[in-house]
UniProtKB/TrEMBL annotation:
<comment type="pathway">
    <text>Cell wall biogenesis; peptidoglycan biosynthesis.</text>
</comment>
<comment type="function">
    <text>Involved in cell wall formation. Catalyzes the final step in the synthesis of UDP-N-acetylmuramoyl-pentapeptide, the precursor of murein.</text>
</comment>
<keyword id="KW-0132">Cell division</keyword>
<dbReference type="GO" id="GO:0016874">
    <property type="term" value="F:ligase activity"/>
</dbReference>
<keyword id="KW-0133">Cell shape</keyword>
<feature type="domain" description="Mur ligase C-terminal">
    <location>
        <begin position="318"/>
        <end position="445"/>
    </location>
</feature>
<dbReference type="InterPro" id="IPR005863">
    <property type="entry name" value="UDP-N-AcMur_synth"/>
</dbReference>
<dbReference type="InterPro" id="IPR013221">
    <property type="entry name" value="Mur_ligase_cen"/>
</dbReference>
<dbReference type="Pfam" id="PF01225">
    <property type="entry name" value="Mur_ligase"/>
</dbReference>
<feature type="binding site">
    <location>
        <begin position="109"/>
        <end position="115"/>
    </location>
    <ligand>
        <name>ATP</name>
    </ligand>
</feature>
<feature type="domain" description="Mur ligase N-terminal catalytic">
    <location>
        <begin position="34"/>
        <end position="94"/>
    </location>
</feature>
<keyword id="KW-0436">Ligase</keyword>
<feature type="domain" description="Mur ligase central">
    <location>
        <begin position="108"/>
        <end position="294"/>
    </location>
</feature>
<dbReference type="Pfam" id="PF08245">
    <property type="entry name" value="Mur_ligase_M"/>
</dbReference>
<keyword id="KW-0067">ATP-binding</keyword>
<keyword id="KW-0963">Cytoplasm</keyword>
<dbReference type="InterPro" id="IPR051046">
    <property type="entry name" value="MurCDEF_CellWall_CoF430Synth"/>
</dbReference>
Length: 471
């Protein structure tokens, strides 16, 4: 964080200082909510959670070097006490952002937020110091913590914004007002909470409504609900996509033999060829979104193409591709799932697995409401149509809908199986995997299917160690 004294912070957040001998002491380290992340000069934010109360760690964090605690009650060590810790954290983030010389870029969408953010961060980082949301910390706590990690050297601040209801993004943009707003798509993620795609579009569009007149709204030309958001902003509009009228677009889109997307990038400043290190054609749209923002920030087509072609995966369990020594390829996409991302992952599996035996180990997609049965059934059917060799549906009722969809799609049904949990899937794969197989693992985060991918890779590591030991 930019250096601020405890007295300054107390004024910004409207708090009272307690047990602070010298209010001029500065916070020079990061602002953290996890006591294990405290460094000398940190500000520790004490949240009261369901399982732990941050106030209980106050003495320990000060002993570890924290300058003070942001708390809702006195804790016997240097503290700034406020009525609402979350509101105070947001106020501090707003103050710091206003003092920065950085350009703030915010992005949202139903699917691909984290992958697009990671691509954009890597592209901008090739131009100037860039701070960006780690993982998916895109809510009312994670977003201000990310903003507070920016320093005087930061030139680009890239913030992912999530929403589970109307007004959420409006609140986040109030904490960190963006100059550039990027909307990726409107899909069915969390549709059970929103009630429909039109309501999701209403929520996502709050981002472009927040932009200033001299800002830029970067919109997906291939998504009609996103394109329509142009009427909801006073900012300039820049379109990206594969549509012919997109300002930043892709042509000659294709997949390499191992399933990595390649295309010709067209921007208003020129054209250049891109081959991504990521897997699946769905990443073309993510790359174009990043390219559009980078173009707006002054990068040439060649600079953007080079940076995109060099970019890798920064966040865990999102199309992580690992090949075992025996030739089995494990695709760990188990961080989360919705109908759009599930379809994209299955298509990537089909492309990667040409000429090989493919496995789709899938679990339920959460928060789909009344659409749940139809969406799970459709994913099961798609696995059949893509000629995935075997579907392993993991879990309870929703998993049975996946398996039923595959069974009802045709005679391929005997190649689908429903198992109770991750361990049952692990046991099945251990007994039936053959060298050269490709295994996709994907479900909503609550299912915990990353355990399947981890077990398959641990098996390989243990086998390799055993072979070395036996030599």
């Amino acid at each position: 964080m930019i250096a601020l004294s405890l007295a300054e912070i107390a004024t910004v957040v409207g708090g009272q200082t307690y047990d602070i001998p010298d209010p001029s002491v500065q916070v020079t380290g990061p602002v953290v909510r996890d006591s294990r992340e405290v460094e000398p000069g940190s500000l520790f934010v004490a949240f009261v959670g369901e399982r732990a109360d941050g106030h209980d760690y106050a003495s320990a964090v000060v002993e570890a070097g924290a300058a003070a605690v942001l708390a809702s009650r006195p804790v016997g060590v240097p503290a700034i006490v406020v009525d609402d810790v979350q509101a105070a954290l947001g106020a501090l983030a707003r103050h710091v952002v206003e003092r920065l010389g950085a350009t703030l870029v915010a992005l949202t969408g139903s699917v691909g937020k984290t992958s697009s953010k990671d691509l954009l961060a890597q592209v901008l980082r090739s131009k100037a110091p860039t701070v960006f949301t780690p993982g998916s910390l895109n809510n009312e706590i994670g977003l201000p913590l990310t903003a507070l990690s920016a320093t005087d050297e930061t030139r680009f601040l890239v913030l992912e914004m999530g929403a589970r209801g109307i007004g959420h993004i409006r609140y986040l943009t109030g904490l960190t007002p963006p100059k550039i707003g990027l909307v990726l798509n409107v899909g069915t993620a969390h549709i059970g909470e929103f009630g429909g795609r039109e309501q999701i579009a209403q929520a996502k569009g709050e981002l472009v409504e927040s932009l200033p007149a001299d800002g830029t709204a970067v919109l997906n030309a291939d998504d009609r609900l996103v394109r329509a958001m142009a009427s909801r902003t006073k900012a300039r509009v820049l379109l990206f996509g594969e549509s012919a009228d997109a300002d930043v677009r892709a042509e000659n889109v294709r997949l390499t033999e191992i399933g990595q997307p390649a295309f010709t990038l067209h921007t208003p400043s020129g054209c250049s060829d891109v081959t991504l290190r990521l897997y699946g054609e769905h990443h073309v749209s993510n790359a174009l979104a990043a390219a559009a923002v980078a173009h707006e920030l002054g990068m040439s087509a060649d600079e953007i193409a080079r940076a995109l072609s060099d970019a890798g995966t920064l966040s865990r369990w999102r199309m992580e591709v690992t090949e075992r020594p025996d030739g089995v390829t494990v695709v760990n996409d188990a961080y989360n799932a919705n109908p759009e991302s599930m379809r994209a992952a299955l298509r990537a599996l089909a492309s990667m697995g040409k000429g090989r035996r493919t496995w789709a180990v899938l679990g339920h997609m959460a928060e789909l409401g009344d659409e749940g049965l139809a969406e799970h059934d459709a994913v099961g059917r798609l696995a059949v149509r893509l000629n995935v060799s075997k579907l392993v549906a993991v879990g309870g009722r929703e998993a049975s809908w996946l398996q039923l969809g595959a069974y009802n799609e045709g005679s391929w049904g005997e190649e689908s199986v429903h198992v109770s949990d991750a361990q049952a899937a692990i046991d099945l794969l251990r007994s039936e995997l053959r060298p050269g197989d490709v295994v996709l693992v994907k479900a909503s985060r609550s299912v915990g299917l990353e355990r399947v991918a981890t077990a398959l890779l641990d098996d390989s590591a243990s086998s390799s160690e055993g072979q070395v030991a036996g030599r």
